[in-house]
């Protein structure tokens, strides 16, 4: 059994509060404070070499300076910038070529997408299921359409509608949007991306994939009788007309997300959540004119993935993505946070807090979910240790990150900001102490097991040396 990962020249585990950078040579991660790299300077580094690798691979190199705006011609500064989502932008986007997502997307059948598969291989790359068979996914019949959504949800329900050209949102009644959808003369490109329907009649005919229900913190660990209700993030209906566009974003709370296209088609532009890309994203998103800059131009690679009718896509935590709808489309989706991606979820959550960006698809009370998960992991670790068993390494690693966040959230100077998300009847200090104890027990066993394996290898080597005839 592997030990909890340690990094940097200090050989300490990941700490959500500290910036880290990856060495392009040895692939280890280093605290910026340990190797003298400031977080604000990291996006300008093209190739980074740690102090040890500098000796053999040379010094780190910086990126060539370039104007990120795709609108700058070097001529007049009076040229009006193109707004992301405008007709001119969509036309340009359709004409561009991107690396195929086949390089990063894993294709699995529904029956292959299991807990055993994810625990063995991780959930770090997007997964595409070309058919819903075996996913445990329930969808309406193919004859289901927008008017049926209105019937099941209710015509007077208020929905957030995005004006794609302006990238602004407003409120409409669902009936008003359906009338717009069926009109023959659409003067605007409008879409609905956050119609959460778990409290409506449509809930009974749509079921999220079984693997999502197995993984979800909200589904599994949030008490039904909690004073704070469960976050409404599990079932969204997306009604998007042709040329709808959602700009680059990271899901709130670092959530993973699933999409299923019932009718039409969607195109996803996917960017890996490397440390450099996340820093670039944060800088881009905090810029006052980010809506006039195509973020994909700032990164090395942006992959294009087309999701066709009847297909399901799972996007892991932290992946930066934008979505284009090339034809009218009806789709369903849901957000979920889980134990396989704790480190990335926490990193994305920290970025979200720093950016203070309002979104139509928030993940409310993310910290509350973490507290419930911490309590669950404590009881799970206790049960395993009592049975002389050990938690999986990814659970130990996730528990350390969560417990580190608990310590940060309960510091005297930070408590006021975080105490509203502390669940009722929770004793944070005791939980932090007890969880730390169980983590230490697991790590001690891992160290013992590693030493035992090394001793076994030595014994085998001696046996080989002294028993094999020369």
TrEMBL record:
TM regions (residue ranges): none
Signal peptide range in chain numbering: none
Record PROSITE patterns: JMJC (PS51184), ZF_PHD_1 (PS01359), ZF_PHD_2 (PS50016)
UniProt record, GO biological process: brain development; chromatin organization; positive regulation of gene expression
Domain PHD-type: 5-56
GO MF terms, alphabetically ordered: catalytic activity, acting on a protein; dioxygenase activity; zinc ion binding
Residue ranges of domain JmjC in the record: 197-353
Subcellular location: Chromosome, Centromere, Kinetochore; Nucleus, Nucleolus
Annotated Pfam families: JHD, JmjC, PHD
Family membership: Belongs to the JHDM1 histone demethylase family. JHDM1D subfamily.
Physiological role: Lysine demethylase that demethylates both histones and non-histone proteins. Mediates demethylation of dimethylated 'Lys-9' of histone H3 (H3K9me2). Recruited to trimethylated 'Lys-4' of histone H3 (H3K4me3) at rDNA promoters and promotes expression of rDNA.
Protein's name according to its UniProt entry: Lysine-specific demethylase PHF2
């Amino acid at each position: 059994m592997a030990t909890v990962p340690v990094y940097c020249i200090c050989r300490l585990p990941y700490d959500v509060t500290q910036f880290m950078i990856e060495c392009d040579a040895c692939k280890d991660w280093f605290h910026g404070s340990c190797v003298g790299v400031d977080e604000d300077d990291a996006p300008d580094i093209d190739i980074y070499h740690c102090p040890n690798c500098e000796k053999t691979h040379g010094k780190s190199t910086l990126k060539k300076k370039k104007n990120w705006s795709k609108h700058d011609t070097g001529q007049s500064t009076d040229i009006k910038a193109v707004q992301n989502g405008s007709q001119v932008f969509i036309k340009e986007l359709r004409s561009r070529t991107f690396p195929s997502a086949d390089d990063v997307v894993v294709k699995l059948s529904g029956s292959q997408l299991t807990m055993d598969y994810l625990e063995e291989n991780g959930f770090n790359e997007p997964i595409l299921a070309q058919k819903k068979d075996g996913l445990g996914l329930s969808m309406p019949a193919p004859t289901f359409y927008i008017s049926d959504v209105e019937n099941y949800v209710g015509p007077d329900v208020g929905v957030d509608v995005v004006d794609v050209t302006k990238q602004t949102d407003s409120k409409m009644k669902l009936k008003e949007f359906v009338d717009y959808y069926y009109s023959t003369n659409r003067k605007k490109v409008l879409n609905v991306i956050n119609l959460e329907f778990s409290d409506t009649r449509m809930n009974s005919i749509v079921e999220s994939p079984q693997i999502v229900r197995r993984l979800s913190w909200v589904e599994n660990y949030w008490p039904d009788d909690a004073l704070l209700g469960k976050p409404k993030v599990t079932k969204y209906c997306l009604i998007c007309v042709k040329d709808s566009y959602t700009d680059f974003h990271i899901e709130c709370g670092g959530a993973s997300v699933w999409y299923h296209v019932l009718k039409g088609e969607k195109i996803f532009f996917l960017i890996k959540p490397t440390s450099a890309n996340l820093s670039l994203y944060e800088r881009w998103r905090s810029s006052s004119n980010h809506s006039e800059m195509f973020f994909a131009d700032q990164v090395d690679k942006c992959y294009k993935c087309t999701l066709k009718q009847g297909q399901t896509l799972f996007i892991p935590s932290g992946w930066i993505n934008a979505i284009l709808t090339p034809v009218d489309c009806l789709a369903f989706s849901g957000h979920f946070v889980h134990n396989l991606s704790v480190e990335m979820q926490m990193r994305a959550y920290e970025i979200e807090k720093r950016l203070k960006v309002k979104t139509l698809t928030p993940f409310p009370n993310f910290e509350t979910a973490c507290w419930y998960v911490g309590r669950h992991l404590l009881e799970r670790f206790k049960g395993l240790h009592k049975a002389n068993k050990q938690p999986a390494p990814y659970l130990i690693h996730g528990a350390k990150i969560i417990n580190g966040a608990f310590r940060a959230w309960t510091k005297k100077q930070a408590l006021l900001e975080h105490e509203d998300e502390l669940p009722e009847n929770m004793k944070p200090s005791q939980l932090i102490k007890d969880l730390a104890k169980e983590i230490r027990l697991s790590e001690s066993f891992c160290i013992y097991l590693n030493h035992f394996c090394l001793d076994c290898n030595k014994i085998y080597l001696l046996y080989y040396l002294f028993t094999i005839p020369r």
